[in-house]
Amino acid sequence: MTDTGSLEQRPGRPLEADPWSTFTGPAVAADQVVAVTSFRRFLRRFAGQPMAVGALAVLVVLVLAAIAAPRIAPFDPLAQDLQDTLQGPTSEHWLGTDELGRDVLSRMLFAARVSLVAAAQAVLLAIALGVLPGLMAGFLRGWVDAVISRITDAVMSFPPLLLAIAIVGVFGPSLTNAMLAVGVIFAPRFLRVTRGAVLAAREETFVEASRSIGTPVLRIIATRILPNILSPLLVQTSLALGFAMLAEASLSFLGLGVQPPDASWGAMIGRAYRFLAQTPTLVVFPGIAIAVCVLAFNILGDGLRDSFGRDTRGAGR
Amino acid sequence: MSLVADPTAPASPPAAQAPLLDVRNLSVSFRLRSAPFAPKRRLRAVDDASFTIGAGETLGLVGESGSGKSTTGRGVLGLVRADSGVVQLAGTEVTALRGGDLRRFRRHAQMVFQDPYSSLDPSAQVGDSVAEPLKVHTDLRGQALQDRVGELFERVGLGRQHLRRYPYEFSGGQRQRIAIARAIALRPKLVVCDEAVSALDVSTQNQVINLLEDLRDADGTSYLFISHDLGVVRHIAHRVAVMYLGRLVEIGPTERLFAAPAHPYTVALLDASPVPDPVVQRSRTRTVLEGDLPDPSNPPPGCPFSTRCPSVMDVCRQVMPEPVAVAGGGVVRCHLHTAGGSAPAGLVPSGAG
Q: Complex ipTM, two decimals?
């Protein structure tokens, strides 16, 4: 590597001979005037993922349909027509009718409200219960971390469904209680994700740089730690929404969630599986709805992770 | 940047009155994490370090990896708690400050870190990172704040149009200049540069060092310049301190220390740096150290360097040498320069050497 004849390195040669020593000008070649804000950068990266955009579109359509259910539903979801029960799809009832002759499409539209709201409730509760202790455990460490982590371990060691049944058993069967149970079950996941991300972030040099500047601790957490743990939290939120929807379906299927005559997709399957031999479509359509919705949340979560993640030279486009 | 004899070496520092930074007998140790209930062990990262830095002066701090250089810098800033000893900056006793007082005091002493890729928050615009010390310690807000940050960017050779970009959009040298802009935002009296140019390539090192020198000349900032690169230290530092296993073994004016090193470890350190002249390099007789740094959690008794010193004497293994003044300026801790206990001549190496 070393060229023995290299004159550049001879002793006594002044450093000023180095052409860079007097370099003072701006060194970025392209001076774009348009500032790329973090949100625009996020949008640009998100738009580059067709699957995630598709998943978001599906979810938006679902939410809009749920909101507009009273206006777009072709029938009253509770109106019975006992002469017209257990039908497959017809031109009048697009998705058929159930055992009481109620229109399945209308019921599914209203059930979407229940399922989405229930999932959101559970996840919000999980975030409320999980994120703050996770932040504290990760940032303070020591005995605070030990206590919080052991409690988390204890909650996680319960079989989730049993815990849910126990909570519903104590407070009585209702959708809110079921979602309370699901929220408690999911809280430790948020706690662990938060704690892990904070543990990693607090060791970063830029956090020490903030400490050396003299920035107050709460401000360091708000401006340096939180933005850097946002992406795993968002991913976890999206995934948890999917799981919460599944959990709600399971509990409602067992009769522990939404109570008749209201319905969620899970409850519809729970009632319909008894008529599987006569009208299989009764199970299939709500099942498809659940599957599509959970899948969309998962794909959206992956897409968020890839586009909200920290920018590195490789990932930034 | 290398061991070039440097005609542009910094002139002598301004006449010293009371030193800006006065570190006396600073010791920092860390508790080693082992299994629960196991006996606690402590690692003495810095042991009994004393030095001063005058206003506008640059003290180079050199030593091997793991010798405690960075911990010394962090101890000076109060980022790690000192076990004992006193750090005074401009008359304020940093080691006595706690909590909010220490936090507010930080505006007077800032730090530039080694790795410019991790010292800037990747999720924040660089303008916000540079504005952080101003937001914390001053009332500047809004347009006035933006103007000040813009000035800082221009001072370090970047433009205002870069304020709203993200760290990944910059090269290593540019990021380090942004980190320097952040460090000088409050016009601190002291800046600790922890291996501030070690992660940069050589041409970029020159830019950053010239920038640091310009800022020193303009603002009278003092630097504690931590580096393992002797060439860089020789260029920028007025005085140099040499650290080995948490101990300051020699300190002195740069010219004297490089021309006539007094401690055998300094000699070995200088010998380990290549001279950029093949003729000279081939003809050098070099002292090459054997072995590695001893385990710092279990340091040898007596002089820490006694396990590797080519001139080791019996007394070295038992007694830590006291500081002795060196002709030409500075202080050395070595029995070769003391009366040396049982070895009165002091310069006779033991047979084992």
A: 0.79
Query: What residues of chain B lie within 8 A of the CB of A35, using their CB?
Result: 164-165
3-state helix, strand, coil in chain A (%, to 5): 65, 0, 30
CATH number for the domain harbouring residue A278: 1.10.3720.10
Inter-chain touch A310–B123, beta carbons under 8 Å: yes
Is residue A212, in this structure, part of any structural domain at all? yes
Buried b (16+ CB within 10 A) or exposed e, B125-148: bbbbbbbbbbbbbeebeeeebeeb
Quick one: closest CA in A to B174, which residue? A27
CA distance B138 to chain A (A): 12
Quote the number of domains for chain A.
Answer: 1
Closest chain B residue to the Cα of A16, Cα to Cα = B8
The answer to whether residue A82 neighbours chain B at the CB level (below 8 Å) is no
Determine the structural domain holding residue A144 and report its residue range: 57-312
Distance from CA of A6 to the nearest CA of B (A): 9
CB B145 within 8 A of CB B185: no
Taking contacts as CB-CB distances below 8 angstroms, the residues of chain B near A313 are 168
Nearest CA-CA partner of A270 in A248, A294, A291: A248
Neighbours of B283 (CB within 10 A): 9
Residues 11-30 of A with CB under 8 A from B: 11-16, 18, 20-28
Residue to mutate among A213, A307, A313, with most B CBs inside 10 A, is A213
Which chain A residue's Cα is nearest to B188? A213
Q: Please list the pLDDT of chain B residue by residue as tens digits (353 residues).
A: 444 444 454 544 444 467 889 999 999 988 876 666 667 778 888 888 999 999 989 999 998 888 888 899 999 988 888 888 999 998 888 888 888 888 888 889 999 998 888 889 888 889 999 999 999 998 888 888 989 999 999 888 888 888 888 888 888 888 998 999 999 999 999 999 998 888 888 888 888 898 899 888 888 899 999 998 888 899 999 999 999 988 899 999 999 999 889 999 999 888 887 777 778 777 777 777 777 778 877 888 888 888 888 888 888 888 888 888 888 888 999 888 876 544 444 444 443 33
**Is A169 among the domain residues?**
yes
Distance, in Å, from the CA atom of B313 to the CA atom of B317, rounded to the nearest integer, reads 7
Does residue A44 lie within any of the structural domains? Answer: no
Domains of chain B are: 21-32+42-333 (3.40.50.300)
Residue of B nearest to A8 (CA): B276
